[in-house]
Amino acid sequence: MTTAGVPRPVARVLWRVVVVVTAGLCALVSALPDPSRPVVVAAVVAVVAAMVSTLSGTPGWRPAGDATVALVAVAVLLAAALDDSDLRPVQVVLAGPLVLLLVTALDRGATAERGEVTVLRASAASRLATATAATGAAVLVSVTAAQQVVPSVTLVLVGLAAAVAAMVVATRAHRK
Amino acid sequence: MTIDLSFTPTARLRRLALVAALSIIGAVVTAQGLLLVLAVVPLVVLVATPRAQLPATAVVVTRLSPLRCVEGDELVLELEVRVAGADRVGAELTLPPQTEATFEGGRVSAATSPGGTATTTVRWLLVPQRWGRHRVGPVQVRVVAGGGCYAARLRLEVDDIVVYPAAGALARSVAPLELAAPLGEHPSRTAGSGVEFAGVRPYHHGDRRRDIDWRTSARHGGVFVRQYADERAFDLVLVLDTTVDAGPAGRSTLDLTVRAATGLAQTYLRSHDRVGLVTFGGPLHWLSPAAGPLQLYRVCEALMSVRPDQAERDAGSVGFGLENLPRRMLPSRAFVCLVTPLLDDRPLEVVQLLRGRGFSPLVIDVLTSEPEVADRSPAHLAVRTWRMQREALTVELGTLGVPVLPWDGEGDLTGALLHAMRSVRPTTRT
Is the ipTM of this structure higher than 0.90? Predict the structure, then answer.
């Protein structure tokens, strides 16, 4: 059996390149400006995972993609936890949309591998609106987190409670 | 057709949740608020695209036309999708073997109704390259919604198509001189009431005055009349050897056999001859000779089901079936055309049987390819031996007075067929 719409080598190659480049940018963001050994290791492993996910094709795409996203997130979080330079909040904010782009690229890459043709697509504005709002919210949280305030247990607890509440709200939104 | 959508979470949802969870766990473990920044983007995306907003139904329609065509014709498959609130709809079409498909990208018609539901129609152009009954589809439609976090799959059955073989082999119908059936289009050797000039003869009492050839009469000093060839039809019986199907797909021996049979049947039925069909190799099938356009459809339908049958091949002799063909299947003075790849001794056996029943068959050889083997290998020797066996078979057929015409699926057999038809001599019927 053959499928219509394939071969689409351009789409396949394009999304594979996007996956590797995005993972590389995330690694770059997490490694600069003061690279520490665990962060470098996590970043390199993340890039390798991205390359494996692009080369493994359809069967290996999903688990390798999951590993790529997890390793990229771990590299960024390790960098944020181990380095407290002034540049770091900007880099973490930048990492947010990059991770979103990486997830999107993995998704589109899997679609291109299947040989699906696009019949209908929502407008670009509606697709970008959520990502833009999410980036704005990340900037807001970053600015708030960067404020010079006296650390207190209450403040930390409030922050963590807000994060957990956001997680709970997100979970409820996706419950059947 | 309205279909209820059943959504399942995608890898995107899992990955966004993973990033958010890792960030929050990291923030809790290290007590650093900065780590929460990475959780914000996935959390906002997840909150902004709740499951409650997923579309419940989709209207999906497939249309395929025409459902009957000839090899190389174009079919159009249309897919109409109407779904509210979907981020993306993808489609994957499963095609029958040897069918080329071109996706006519973009949207043929896209309109937005007042309710905000987009209707899109897309088309595929399908070109089936091989005869037979094929199933087009299914079309797997994937509706992605909720910011790409959910996907629903639909499986749409399309339709079955009948692809008739492309007719080949003959540009025009030719016939032997000895024709039995009256009322046809082929000028015969006997004088009659046709339109083709056959000669002049002295006037006899009762001849029509308008047939008098005045020029000849003036030249010879007597009255002469023009004679015309009688126009008659003839019976063509196609005997197809479907024992094996060798060669590349699309140009295999079975493909060429079927195309040659279709071409011959089409050409002769157009000139009001009667055409019959016998296939052996699989189960023995026959179609009594008949004329008219309906017979062409009968022949084509019969050809749709010809397939090699291993059990029949292993059974050995084909004589039993052919010997017991009903008499009306092989009318006297019918012209029998055996289409075969000449890959074993069965064609010789069939020819001997037919000659035993008083027919002088013609053989059309449809084998166009040979096994490809390296020089100096043991297989090369086997191929040489096989080639010599085929030559010996051809020579043996020649000694029986049976012409063998090779046909590669491209050429025109008109000239060779005419020569062969005029050269064969009928045998004594037993």
Answer: no
